[in-house]
Amino acid sequence: MDELVQHAVPSPNWNERKLPISMIVLHYTGMRTGAEALERMCDPAAEVSAHYMIEENGAVTRLVDEDKRAWHAGRSYWRGITDVNSASIGIELVNPGHEWGYRPFTAAQMESLLPLVGRIVRRYDIPRANVVGHSDIAPARKDDPGELFDWGRLARLRLALAVPKISLGTPFPNDGAFMLGLERFGYDITDGRAAVAAFQRRWRPARIDGAIDGEIGAILFALLLERDRGHAR
Questions:
Q1: Which residue range is the domain that position 200 belongs to?
Q2: Residue at a domain's end among 126, 156, 186
Q3: What is the secondary structure of 91-158 as a DSSP string?
Q4: Which residues pair with 203 in a beta bridge?
Q5: Taking the CA of residue 191 as centre, how many other CA atoms within 13 Å lie in the half-sphere pointing to its CB?
Q6: Sign of the Cα pseudo-torsion (16, 17, 23, 25, in order)
Q7: What are phi and psi of 88, to 5 degrees?
Q8: pTM greater than the 0.85 cutoff
Q9: Do 23 and 87 meet the contact criterion of CB atoms below 8 Å apart?
Q10: Local structure of 225: helix, strand or coil
Q11: Is residue 165 included in any domain, yes or no?
Q12: 3-state SS assignment for residue 54
């Protein structure tokens, strides 16, 4: 227990890491209640867990120690990493998700999340580009934390990348060029439409249709420029 963690409920669902910690993955629980989610993450048969869970009232529960490999990411990929569980810390935010009545995350949750993410980022020197959502690393399977998550609050504290200001149009002459750019930025593009929708969910949540257009092309181009200039760490 510490000033950021109110409860400890050890989950048996972990093993040893094979990679150094270089990522944070944010999730929603996607179950009707936090109690249901906690029970599932402590059930050996479920084979799922996370390092932390944040209730809607802001209470933080630690389930797996940070130096251990929690089982939150599943089959996933980000910037060449295929064993995301080994490289990441997983944080679950209690929210029923798209299946049970998706709603905005509470102010209390965000107030607890921000210092927790900040501490983890500082402790492991995690790049802002590696603070991601589950949908970023598993676009064909996952939608969380979803379009209602306030990435802007993290970005203003330099805990995640901000949506870039668009000063140039899209340089991508066709959809194939855009997909190559998306892969270069870090996404798994095996399911192209799902990858585009995941990009939209994170960077242009006002319209998520899986279709490539000039606006998301310009956003991706700006992100790649910032990365190449060394401004996107």
A1: 175-228
A2: 156
A3: EEEP--HHHH---PPPHHHHHHHHHHHHHHHHHHT--GGGEEEHHHH-TTT---S-TTS-HHHHHHTT
A4: none
A5: 16
A6: negative
A7: -130, 165
A8: yes
A9: yes
A10: helix
A11: no
A12: strand
Residue-by-residue DSSP string for 171-197:
--SSHHHHHHHHHHHT---SSHHHHHH
- CATH code, domain with 137: 3.40.80.10
Q: Determine the 3-state secondary structure of 42 from DSSP.
A: coil
| Residue pair 170/177 in contact by the 8 Å Cβ criterion | no
Which are the catalytic amino acids?
Answer: 92
Cβ atoms within 10 Å, residue 231: 10
**Dihedral-angle region of residue 217 (phi above 0 means left; psi in -120 to 50 means alpha; beta otherwise):** alpha
Helices and strands (H and E) in the chain: how many: 9, 8
pLDDT in tens, the chain (233 residues): 689 999 999 999 999 999 999 999 999 999 999 999 999 999 999 999 999 999 999 999 999 999 999 999 999 999 999 999 999 999 999 999 999 999 999 999 999 999 999 999 999 999 999 999 999 999 999 999 999 999 999 999 999 999 998 888 899 999 999 999 999 999 999 999 999 999 999 999 999 999 999 999 999 999 999 998 887 77
Of 43, 123, 48, the C-alpha closest to 92 is 48
What is the residue type of 139?
P
Work out how many domains the chain is built from and give that number: 2
Nearest CA to 119 out of 91, 159, 90, 156 is that of 159
